[in-house]
# Entry
Amino acid sequence: MSLEVHRMVEQGAMENSECILCATCADVCPRDVISLVFRKGK
# Structure
């Protein structure tokens, strides 16, 4: 699996059906602009 994270960040949309919420993109982001947050649903 390979997601186009750079493109998704530029578009401001980090949603992809292939994402497994592993947070690797956030861990390796050189500019520290990606974070993974879990929120309680309504």
Summary: The CA atoms of residues 23 and 36 lie 6 Å apart. The chain has a mean pLDDT of 83.
